[in-house]
């Protein structure tokens, strides 16, 4: 996986005796965009090179970050969301009593996204007078998943203080059928990496729903960041 921005073209070449060329065309506004390219090397000793081609004009900047490779399919291309410049395409956020917001990271202990490198996050604001047990819902776009394949839904969460508490309930959704995958208890002003395993019974198009349930009445803020899905068991960060 690569993130490339801003630029015109990013070409990726595989050098494994076959000179296979993989091309991804890019022309986006100035924010990070995920690029996911499936590869089938002919040799176990394959090498890959990245070629950035500047666009037309006197100034053109191209940045590449977070290059990773893993086995399995690029299942997360239309799912993964870091909330850069707001809610990602296909995602939806709702709540009857709570307020969603999408914000750039601020260099303070309470408003810094989890990598510490800037960026954006999603948040839910609970204010005085809202009912105990109020729920905010974040729903993914549809994503195709394969039967009997294990996937990890990986995400980062935090609250604004040690006295604030919330539960995140993660569900998988098919038409007419919702299945609880896991719960994550959050009561810390430090970012916490949580995960939920899903092993679909049928090959179909699923949605993942996050229910943020507030368990304390005082005014506070809950933050979400870097939601991803990948094949295999969860590889969570433990601090």
Protein described:
By secondary structure, the protein is mainly beta. Helices cover 0% and strands 47% of the residues. Strands 7, 10, 11, 13, 14 and 16 form a 6-stranded antiparallel beta sheet that branches. It has a 5-stranded antiparallel beta sheet with strand order 8-9-17-12-15, with no helix packed on it. The two termini are 25 Å apart.
Quick one: biggest sheet?
6 strands, antiparallel
CATH topology group of the largest domain: Jelly Rolls
Task: Briefly note the structural class of the backbone.
Answer: mainly beta
Roughly how much helix do the residues carry, as a percent range? under 10%
CATH class of the largest domain: Mainly Beta
- Which CATH-level-2 architecture of the largest domain? Sandwich
State the end-to-end CA separation: 25 Å
Helix count from the secondary structure assignment: 0
N-to-C series of helices and strands: EEEEEEEEEEEEEEEEE
Unreliable stretches (pLDDT < 50, length at least 5) are 1-10, 15-31
> Overall pLDDT, averaged?
76
Report the principal-axis shape: globular
Strand content: over 45%
GO cellular component, one term: membrane
Pfam families: MAM
Domain MAM: 32-76, 79-236
Protein name: MAM domain-containing protein
